[in-house]
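Researcher: Let's walk through a ligand-bound prediction step by step. First, I give you the protein sequence. Second, the SMILES string for EPS. Third, you return the three-dimensional complex as structure tokens. Ready?
Model: Ready.
Researcher: Here are steps one and two:
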Amino acid sequence: MRYLTAGESHGPQLTTIIEGVPAGLPLTKEDINIELARRQKGYGRGRRMQIEKDQVQILGGVRHGETLGSPIALVVENKDFAHWTKIMGAEPISESEKAEMKRKITRPRPGHADLVGAIKYGHRDMRNVLERSSARETTVRVAAGAVAKKILSELGIQVAGHVIEIGGVRAQKLDYSTLAELKEKTENSLVRCLDENAAQQMMKAIDEAKEKGDSIGGIVEVIVEGMPPGVGSYVHWDKKLDAKIAQAIVSINAFKGVEFGLGFEAGRSFGSEVHDEILWSEEKGYYRKTNNLGGFEGGMTTGMPIVVRGVMKPIPTLYKPLQSVDIDTKEPFLASIERSDSCAVPAASVVAEAVVAWEVAKAIVEQFGLDRIDLIRENIERMKQYAREF
Ligand SMILES: Cc1cc2nc3c(=O)[nH]c(=O)nc-3n(C[C@H](O)[C@H](O)[C@H](O)COP(=O)(O)O)c2cc1C
Ligand SMILES: C=C(O[C@@H]1CC(C(=O)O)=C[C@@H](OP(=O)(O)O)[C@H]1O)C(=O)O
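Model: Step three, the predicted complex:
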């Protein structure tokens, strides 16, 4: 499976074409719209989210609510485009309007893609960079992830994400007995955090940052349950599923690091404290006492839950000005801006779920794939049975 996305943040729409989705998968607009709405929520977002009401159009690959095996085309409109048609060059403009509408962005924001993107592509107007480097693109990544989640749910595999830290406030109580419980609790939290007490403090931290004209980042966690063992492979660097998930997480705008299970803490512990001891029972077959390695050994799933965390840096666009240089005049200036999110960690946790779901579904379809969801399901069941009896 693969997908590409196209579209600018303030252009008419975002598009994705997804190839390789097995035939016979039930898929409706609602399956995708639910995920799009989840991504739009979250404490700390700016005014843009009040303008957008993300809804998908399915323009290919699905008939009567089932995938055909052919490419799936998905489109999400930018409602904000209505305010930007002239600036985005979508319609001809008069000579008198030209100077105003073609007003260039020449003042790069530290931490965004503006300056480096402009140098790389030779753009003297950095709007040509920011339109595509914007995390608006994650809308259609979440749409593709919704399709991946649908594949996984048909195979009895569940994915859930949540926020564990914002602006230095760490969730302490992370108890849940099932992923369904985790999902329900975090869905009711404005910061998608299980620990209600920490959630209150996180919102306070967001308010304080906003008041100061600043921004904050945080840490999200994604869990995948129901995986068969042996997905991914140790035989080549580019077949390791944990490595693919790591790339997917760091590909999310503003994500700077990733860890599995104990993660960086493993580097401060003894081997005897880290490695997950192997047990066996008639009923379960092989299983582990702990899951410190977050569901991976040798780039392959162990059958234990995948537990992956990603760290998001603070949003680069700040109301509090930072030092930069105008690329036309070379004069120093202090950046000022129109609007921005002050914290997008809750929204990013939904994006993280989507990109992890995508990598896991892709690996499964590649490994067990026979172009049809029913045959993939049979293959997975066979693999799970084989592993139990091994
Ligand atoms: C959901 C989400 C919303 C974001 N919103 C903003 C924003 O409002 N303003 C901003 O400057 N950056 C925002 N970002 C981060 C930038 O898109 C990102 O920092 C930029 O593309 C540069 O890429 P890099 O940080 O990965 O190097 C957001 C990121 C995500 C995931
Ligand atoms: C539009 C979204 O996020 C945007 C991501 C973003 C950035 O620079 O990454 C900048 C902001 O856009 P604008 O400048 O239009 O307010 C965010 O709102 C979205 O998540 O759908």
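Researcher: And what stands out?
Model: The CA atoms of residues 42 and 190 lie 5 Å apart. Residues 46, 112-113, 133-135, 138, 252-254, 315-317, 340-341, 344, 347-348, 351 surround flavin mononucleotide (ligand 1) (CB under 6 Å).
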